[in-house]
Amino acid sequence: MFVFVCVQCGAQLTAPLSQVALPAHARQQYGNGLQLPVLMESGTFAVELEPWGPPWRGWEEIDPDEAAARGIYAPVHALSEGAAGAVVIAPGDTRGAVLIPEMRGGACCGFGGGDGPNMACAGCGLLVASRVDDCSLWQAVWLAPNAVRRFPVEGADAGLLSWADLLAEGVGVPPSEPIAQWGAPFGASDRWHWSPQWVAAAGQALAHLLVASEGRAVTVQDGLTAKMFQRALDTLLPAGRPTRRAVLAGPGQPTRSADADILLVPSHPQTGKAWTPAAPAHLVPLPFGVWLRLVFPERQLAVPASGPMPDGVLRDDPPTPSVHDVFRIDWEVFQRTLVRLPAVRTPWLREITENLTEHMRTGLL
Q1: pTM for this entry
Q2: What is the pLDDT of residues 11-61, one digit of tens each?
Q3: What is the DSSP letter of 267?
Q4: What is the phi/psi pair of residue 142, to 5°?
């Protein structure tokens, strides 16, 4: 575990934190005017390895070889010239930093961080972090990499969870959730949305699915998996046979690589590394919490029960309200992932990146 301190005066700026993988939805903007929760779990931090934040350079100013050296293999709107290594934490884990109210970063409902750091060290006044809580953005504090330094906490070790530990904990991400409009009283909205984490995870995974398809049609399992991916796969890939088959696989699951071309596998929430089967296969990573709910969907009692709940009996809570909207993949996460895969330079994948606006207009993304 680590604490982060100010590089100028050494004042402690965070509680003790353990490192986890950067969430797929870390840079996501979801919907319009929605109030998203806190990005990071309390007591954790993640590192954005790429440059992020102002100043920005438009694609027309960047040489393709320079972009490729940075791991970008297809055109994007702009690239950041900011420092790499920003650290994201939960707002409640900050210590000894004060918010600068006038530095809202062009936000409409809160703080956006678009103008750079808006939090200063209480000890010396150095700008050390950006508070983000504007509508449709995940609430977070991003520590500026050139303004903080981390030190290990003696005698504190969070430890790495095994796949068996993660399965035993069984903490999955529900596919839908109620999200309030910004400014609405808590609990006032009964409008259920597809989980922002799910649409971001789908955007990341779809990019890997397209690469693994090698330009052939792909089918996925029925149920939630098909609801997430099949419409996009049928639109973006050619129809006809032979098709490639993608199935869920991972710890505690039967080995399915023999009858599948592509495996949808979990990534470890602490390390970000994908689960790897014994036999080689095309792997498509999914955040562990999303993968877990795909493998073990929410179960409901057919008939309400009464009296004490015996061990092993499900509660008779009402079923989760359904979302009537069609599942739409997060196009920004999809694009951000796809342009960073070298295979995007193949003509048919490059064509997809050039037609994203059309797919957004038709409601695919």
Answers
A1: 0.88
A2: 999 999 999 999 999 999 998 888 899 999 999 999 999 998 888 899 999
A3: E
A4: -105, 115
